[in-house]
């Protein structure tokens, strides 16, 4: 008497499984899941290019270099984020992005951003010449027009002469100051002749987008913290050459490190390498 009930239960279970599987298949084919709030690194290449343009435009408005670099780093590019930005601008400039005045203006802002950080790409050659008159030229034209149209009085008005001139001192924005709080050498076979720099705030938190300068002889090089996301927001490094003394500082924000840095022969265990350094700049 129980056999028919058992068979019915099996048929019901099998039908349920088949129905669920069929429903999932139809949903996947005709109703794909819509993704919201995707992370920047999840964007498609074309979307990533437009995202980088938006970052450059936002920087042109806010002037916040640190925030812009953090957003570029969040794309997890295989190369330096600023080099990736230059490559993106080159791709956009070669694909019809310059067909509209707004596209030209946007790409011009992008190139100005990465050129200011010491990078270059092909987009600069793709852009048409900038025919916009400079502010100085417009100001000269305005002054000239006023000079020709306004008669110059031989004597100043009495009420103007009676008013004393009020001088308003310019307001200077506070600038961060840093100090080299740690300098030590180390020897590593996989990291020969390199200066590793960490830039942190007064709480020890990493600060991306900070410029560090290495100088030797009559030459110098600027490198920026936070561009190697796998090493942290504070990190930046510089490759030394043999037989060369280097001085290290943060331009306009710190005094030079107290001693010159020079590589030389060292040993890690019984393996030969070249001496490297670790320097920490901290906000004070």
Describe this structure in words.
This protein is an alpha+beta fold. Among the domains are: 40-126, no CATH class; 178-283, Sandwich (Immunoglobulin-like). It contains eight helices and nine strands. The protein has helices at residues 3-30, 45-62, 65-73, 81-93, 101-116, 123-126, 135-149, 158-162; strands at 178-186, 194-200, 211-216, 219-224, 235-239, 247-249, 265-268, 271-274, 276-283. The strands form three sheets. The chain has a four-stranded mixed beta sheet, with no helix packed on it. Strand 7 (265-268) and strand 8 form a beta hairpin. Helix 2 (45-62) runs antiparallel to helix 3 (65-73). The protein is extended, with a radius of gyration of 31 Å.
| Main CATH class of one domain | Mainly Beta
* Inertia-based shape: extended
Order of helices and strands: HHHHHHHHEEEEEEEEE
At the third CATH level, what is the topology name of one domain? Answer: Immunoglobulin-like
Strand content: 15-25%
CATH architecture call of one domain:
Sandwich
How many E strands? 9
The structure class reads alpha+beta
Radius of gyration: 31 Å
Distance between the termini: 88 Å
Share of helical residues: 25-40%
Largest sheet: 4 strands, mixed
Topology:
Layout: H1 3-30, H2 45-62, H3 65-73, H4 81-93, H5 101-116, H6 123-126, H7 135-149, H8 158-162, E1 178-186, E2 194-200, E3 211-216, E4 219-224, E5 235-239, E6 247-249, E7 265-268, E8 271-274, E9 276-283
Parallel strand pairs: 2-9
Antiparallel strand pairs: 1-9, 2-5, 3-4, 3-6, 7-8
Helix pairs in contact: 2-3, 2-4, 2-5, 4-5
